[in-house]
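Hi again,

Forgot to attach this to my earlier email, sorry! This is the prediction with S-adenosylmethionine bound. I've pasted everything inline since the attachment limit keeps bouncing my files.
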Amino acid sequence: MTSLDQRHVEPEILDHLEPDDPRAVASRRDLRLLNGLMGQVAIAAGLLRDHVPAPPRRLLEIGSGDGVFMLRVARRLHRRWPQVHVILLDRQDLVSHETRAAFEGLGWTVETVVADVFDWTAAASAPSQDVVAANLVLHHFSDDAIRLLFVRLAALTPILVATEPLRRPFALLASRSLRLVGTNAVTRHDAPVSVRAGFRAAELSALWPEAAAHGLIERRRGLFTHTFCAAMPTDGAARP
Ligand SMILES: C[S@@+](CC[C@H](N)C(=O)[O-])C[C@H]1O[C@@H](n2cnc3c(N)ncnc32)[C@H](O)[C@@H]1O
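Structure tokens for the complex follow:
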């Protein structure tokens, strides 16, 4: 058995399947179920509500998948945040017309970016976002890669909110029991891999650039989720 003392980052099967592979389609459906069971939507919406001081004009989600996670967050926030321009960035082109229409029905405009987050953030160094969200994506990357990504994100946004897998024995046990809720073989492989690559304690704070290290809040929420919020000092102005 692998110790959970250290992170172990291994490839996840879903990342290497074509978007329309039936195993990938089923695994993304499982991911929507798991986001619900883990409470990711409620946790992320609560963090955004608590840490973003004024309604944002531009919200970037990195590793946004099919966009359904952020749509569910938007359903919780749209009355308080009426006119957000949401940018869904993922390596794969996964956002359906129905999901776009649902965002627009809430008064949010949607832009999709199909790109590697490291390439895209390297090219976008000027501050351009009011907030960046990451759900179940940072754990795909090594500590060195996260350190580099954090330097770039700190230049791009005053606030980062991340909701990631908690690296704890109970979470690992639960991730190995997903047969009970009917997930497919891809999800049953990727879930424990994600927990072993997840976070605990102040591991993400330690990777945040020191010069931007103001207002870091990192803690466990519930049984399965590790959260990180970085709020940089700002003049309070929204980004152009
Ligand atoms: C576990 S899924 C989470 C998707 C979404 N946040 C959600 O909660 O439904 C991780 C996503 O990160 C994306 N991803 C992984 N590495 C990436 C990279 N280097 N650049 C952009 N997206 C990436 C994958 O394509 C995948 O859609």
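The chain has eight helices and seven strands. The chain has one domain: 39-231.

That should be everything now.

G.
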